[in-house]
Design a protein that fits this description.
The complex is a heterodimer of chains A (210) and B (96). Chain A is mostly helical and 210 residues long. Chain A is built from 7 helices and no strands. Chain B has one domain (2-91). Chain B contains 5 helices and no strands. The radius of gyration of chain B is 16 Å and the shape is flat. The model of chain B has no long low-confidence stretch (mean pLDDT 88). The chains are: A mainly alpha (210), B mainly alpha (96).
């Protein structure tokens, strides 16, 4: 095993001259596909909003904008921690990477916690999926996105374990992260950034539009 | 540690945090109620525009697409321009 590991190419610092896909190409096809599906949701929402703007504005006024902004800040910070974790594994000093992935997960859990509080408040006020069109879109968009967040937390847990293995290994031997490991880690990181990206659009559409 | 934190991506994160806080402040009901009704569409379009600038920053710096092959850059930028543009045009009644 050691021999096989040593024969694998160890990642080198990035240079702008070498274009490369961050992660597996297949993961990027999934990411772009997911982005296209959500873009259809966004345009359909804005289209129907234009036909009954008063109802949408009245319903939107009951949402807690503070929850929305706090969750955006959570996901942005989580994404930044993931970048730091990945950069650490690419560098010669990967020892901080597991800590960054733990912090990223903590932000993801923070997002989930706020989301659950928000859903609880809405349901206890009698607001459900069938209340009106705005809330139908609200529950579908945020619910599907929340599903992505939960899957993403699993992905981050995987990145954490992978980082721990790499750190443990590199403390015994001089081997760093292999190219194969890096591609896997970058794929997971790219997925988490997409979760962040989708929320960046959902936030103003549902919570802020006037 | 320092070499990790002092990267352009950290500046990008700070900018994103600032843009988010600014969007929230502008989007607050008590602020918008002070403004004439005619400006609502401009504010909404601005909020969507800022959101898609943020998306572009996430794609470039977090997802590292700025170092990706041209085809991926074009795919991502097309999404940003087409979706962001479509939302603003629909909202303003240009696309009915």
């Amino acid at each position: 095993m050691n021999k096989g590991l040593a024969s694998e190419e160890i990642v080198s610092p990035l240079t702008p001259e070498t274009p490369r896909v961050p992660g597996e190409a297949g993961v990027w096809i999934f990411i772009l596909g997911d982005m296209v599906v959500f873009s259809l949701f966004f345009t359909v929402f804005v289209y129907y909003r234009g036909h009954d703007i008063e109802l949408y504005l009245q319903s939107q006024a009951t949402l807690n904008q503070f929850y929305g902004v706090l969750n955006t800040l959570f996901l942005l910070t989580s994404s930044w921690f993931v970048v730091m974790g990945v950069e650490g594994l690419r560098s010669k000093a990967p020892k901080y990477s597991p800590h960054f992935f733990i912090l990223a997960m903590a932000c993801g859990i923070g997002f989930s916690w706020i989301k659950i509080i928000e859903y609880k408040e809405k349901v206890s006020a009698g607001i459900t999926l069938t209340t009106n069109d705005f809330y139908m879109y609200y529950y579908i968009f945020t619910g599907l996105h929340f599903l992505h967040v939960l899957i993403g937390l699993g992905v981050l847990l995987f990145l954490l374990f992978k980082a721990k293995i790499i750190v443990q290994r590199s403390s015994h031997k001089s081997t760093g992260t292999t190219q194969k490991e890096m591609t896997l880690i970058e794929s997971g990181a790219s997925y988490w950034h997409m979760v962040d990206l989708l929320w960046i659009v959902i936030f103003p559409l549902l919570y802020l539009l006037k | 540690m320092k070499h990790l934190l002092l990267k352009p991506v950290t500046a990008a994160w700070l900018l994103l945090m600032l843009a988010t806080s600014l969007s929230w402040w502008v989007g607050q009901d008590r602020f918008v109620s002070l403004i004439d009704d005619g400006n609502h569409l401009i504010i909404s379009s601005g909020l969507v525009f800022i959101a898609f600038i943020k998306v572009r920053i996430v794609i470039s710096y977090f997802m590292d697409v700025r170092h990706a092959p041209l085809v991926l850059k074009i795919a991502c930028d097309s999404w940003v321009v087409l979706v962001g543009g479509a939302i603003i045009l629909i909202m303003n009644g240009v696309i009915k």
